[in-house]
Structure formats: C-alpha cells, structure tokens
Specification:
Elements (H helix, E strand, L loop, with lengths): L7 E4 L23 H15 L5 E5 L8 H4 L9 E4 L4 E4 L4 E2 L2 H7 L3 H7 L5 H20 L12 E4 L6 H15 L2 H4 L3 E4 L3 E5 L4 H12 L6 E4 L6 H6 L3 E3 L5 H9 L4 E3 L4 H11 L7
Parallel strand pairs: 1-2, 1-9, 2-3, 9-10, 10-11
Antiparallel strand pairs: 3-4, 4-5, 6-8, 7-8
Helix pairs in contact: 1-11, 3-4, 5-6
C-alpha cells in the first residue's frame, strides 16, 4: 500500500477505536466513555492532527445520540463528517446538521446513488412493522425484551445473550419475509456486527465512501477504509485499500490479505492499530 497517497480515512468505531484492552463503548444515549477510552481517543486525535491525512470520516452503524459523547474527544478539524447508520445518515459537525443525501448525491453526479437514497422512505414501513409485529415475534422466540435502537435509516437491535448473530439474523429475516410485502422485503439487506443485528434499505457503508469521496473531491484511490467486523463486508469485498486491526473477524482479515498491497493487516489491536498507521505516514507532506 502506498501510504504516501492516502488523503482520507474512513474509520469504523466499534472494535477499531477502543483502548488496548478492547473495553466496549456504550450503546445508550446516557453513556459516557471511561478515562481509558478517552485517553485512547485523545491519542488518536493527536496522531491524526500531526499526520498528513486531510479528512478523517467516521463510518459507523452508530447513530448520533450514542456517537456524540465519543466523538467530542476528537478536536481536530479533520474530523468533520460522520457517516452513520451504515451510510443512511451523514452529519456535518461544522454546520451542525444532517445532509440531504439525495440532493448531495445528485450534486456530485451520482444519480444511481441518489435513486437508492430515495429508498430510505421504505424504512418507515419496516420500522412500523417491527414496532407493531416484529418485536413481539422476536421476544416470544427469545423470551426477552428486544427493542430497536432509535435510528431513522435502518432497523437495529441487540443480539440476545447466549445466541449467535447467525441464528438471530436468520430468525429476523424469516419474520420480515413473512410479515412484509414482497416489494418491501426485496429492498432490504440483513447484516450484523458482533453485538447488533442491522437491517438496511439497500444502502451500506460503501455508499458513504463513494458519496464522501465525491463530495470532498478525493479520488477513491487516495482513500483508506478501516473496519473489523462482518458489517464491514461490503467495504472489504469491494474497496481496494483497506486496513483492519489484529482483533478483526477472521473473514475481514482474510479479505484484507487478499488485497495484496492494497490491504494492511495491523499487528496492533483496536485503536493502537490506527495510531501506528498515522505515525508511520510520511510526514514531509503534513503541512
């Protein structure tokens, strides 16, 4: 990988920004990071500010209420855009608002992407179905509360303790197929992280990369995507320059190594893998 050509990093959060012991970030709006987590975030922020990277775009399945308390510890002006809910929402911190993704896609000449972003309206039917039927069916199946997260661009809920993501993914897919009109079901993508099930409206993290590269005027050949788990599969299957930490899922590691010079499997885990990368970027072009 030609590190000297990287201008923008698309960065996953969970599993990639954690401190060395892997301490999980919280998933409730009232959560605050621990001192150890804050120190890691500040170390990353400093390394980022001292690096030649021009843009550092958070690319996560999280939504703003459970992301804001984490990213406030990034003070670098390079951290402006947050691609959230698997690219269904993009927040501009400088302007303090979410972007109109249909309009932005059209302005960037991405007509196909604009059309797919219009499909976000189909999420209303899915969220309503889960509130009225799906949640009850899943709670009867697993005998525990299974509320969804307060997202607007995709349906997410926690994987019940004691069950695998594959089991729960198969169950919710079967329920959705039985309960939704075929035309609505066919638009959906079912995926998972290590802790959550995510149902997407045909939009995923790779779309966020395409859109933000176009918006910021950066060629995709000058971008690096960082991730660690199966909800990053679309990125690691299709994007040419990727990096994962040593704690990444075996499938993500496999895909990283398959990229040859375009893949970097770090010897470091969690946030330290990013710090190591930033500190080894060529410094001559930093300013």
């Amino acid at each position: 990988m030609k590190f000297s050509e990287i201008r923008i990093i698309f960065q996953d959060v969970d599993g990639c920004l954690n401190p060395a012991d892997g301490e999980d970030f919280g998933v409730t709006p009232d959560w605050e990071p621990t001192p150890t987590q804050i120190q890691m975030l500040k170390n990353i922020d400093q390394a980022l500010d001292e690096s030649p990277i021009e843009h550092f775009v958070i690319n996560t399945g999280r939504f703003w209420p459970i992301l804001e308390s984490l990213v406030r510890h990034f003070e670098s002006p390079k951290v402006r855009y947050f691609v959230m809910e698997h690219a269904c929402v993009v927040h501009d911190r400088l302007e303090g608002e979410n972007l109109d993704l249909v309009a932005l896609s059209k302005a960037c000449g991405l007509e196909d992407l604009a059309e797919r972003y219009r499909s976000l309206t189909s999420m209303e039917a899915l969220l309503r179905w889960y509130d009225e039927q799906g949640q009850q069916a899943m709670e009867e199946l697993y005998a525990m509360p299974m509320p969804r997260l307060d997202k607007v661009g995709n349906l997410s809920f926690a994987i019940p303790e004691g069950f695998t993501s594959e089991q729960v993914l198969a169950a919710i897919e079967a329920e959705a197929k039985a309960g939704l009109p075929e035309k609505d079901f066919q638009k959906l993508e079912f995926c998972c992280s290590d802790r959550f099930i995510d149902i997407l409206p045909g939009i995923h993290k790779m779309d966020g990369i395409e859109l933000m590269c176009a918006h910021l005027g950066v060629e995709q050949s000058n971008a690096l995507a960082v991730g660690d788990y199966l909800n990053d599969l679309a990125v690691f299957e299709h994007f040419p320059q990727v990096m994962c930490p040593s704690n990444a899922h075996p499938r993500i590691k496999e895909l990283t190594e398959s990229k040859g010079s375009g893949g970097h499997l770090s010897s470091q885990a969690y946030g330290q893998s990013l710090i190591e990368l930033l500190r080894h970027l060529p410094q001559a072009d930093a300013h």
